[in-house]
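ARCHIVE CARD
SHELF: 3
SLOT: left
DATA:
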Amino acid sequence: MAQQTDEQINDGFVVDTEDCEEREQAYRVRGTARPITVVGNPVLHKECQDVTEFDDELAALIDDMFASQRAAEGVGLAANQIGVDLKVFVYDCPDDEGVRHTGVVCNPVIQELSPELRVLDDSNEGCLSVPTAYASLARPDYAEVHGQDPQGNPVKVRGTGYFARCLQHETDHLYGRLYIDRLSKRERKEALRQMAEGTARYETVPND
């Protein structure tokens, strides 16, 4: 099955909306689902290491990430959410129009937006690493991420609405920031209360 490098490019941005089911399944069936790390695990609270080796080991990690994302019913997953200290995330996420986006970004960097593009959306946000908790969080409703694909080639991804939120959320993870770190103290406390009172629907890594 074709990887991201074989996809069409539109204005320099990867087209991640074609053959999503086939590409996601190809990754997932090769992988093994791993348990999800949760808030308090040290790997979630520090910047991850850059990906420097674009090899079979990275490819196997990406397969496991897609398998883990599906098992947890997520729309995006960063490597440190399965305990791996590397800057790579995967996504299988719809935008606000219901268009599905599927792909991989290594070493992602969120691009600064010009003022006219910084329209904030304060929708609810959740996280597999903060299970059962949700909170309203304002983020730009358009995002651009530059990075590399699994073969090390430059890649650019852009999204709007819910998908833009996903791109920002997953990139944050790889720099040691959870969405609850962007909340007020009161809102963060409430999110952690929701987590404490809820039960994750997927396997998690216990914190020591």
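SLOT: right
DATA:
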Amino acid sequence: MTVPHHHHEGEPCLDVEDCRLIDPRVQILLDREAATLTDRFDGIFSAETVTAVVHDSFDQLAATAKVHTHLPVLAARFARQRLDATAKNEGATVSDLPEVLFVCVHNAGRSQMAAALLNHHGQGRVVVRSAGSAPADSINPAVVAAMEELGLDLTQEFPKPLTTEAVQASDVVITMGCGDACPIFPGKRYLDWQLDDPAGQGIDAVRPIRDEIDRRVQALLAELVPVAT
């Protein structure tokens, strides 16, 4: 029989859902983030729907996170991505920008580098997402350091779980090791980039992986958004 853990004020939350439901500080922060998103999606989603997505996003992220301090803010960012994708899928919003989703197992290395590089080179001409079929609790420090060498900051990024709505909203889905874990939808372009895994590697091993991803990202961008001549 499982013995329930009774949370006391000042203790770290050992169970994430318990933390969300019992810790009033977490609940207040989540409600505040949900209210902001409700204003953003006014006329598209009800306040109840937005709040449910925020709470579900918090629970999904917290299931793998080591540190829960900033989780309400990260949950709101993840929820916004999910709501944006759902709005597009349901025809509530229309975008002329191509949308790309990068997927690897942990969303801690290759897919994070690819997303950051495409965002950097795309300069707002592409909507970029990344996700993991089994997200890690944090981004690989060697990957963060390798991207910092290019002036790209990954310290505010976080591993996110793969969702069906993200795949459905994307025009191009690029896998980097998750293979069959990605849902298949008609009309999408699927690519599989065979790349070495930076997990457990030092920065010297990560640099060539980063540079190969950069080459592929720039080639993809040239296809998606041709430069006018």
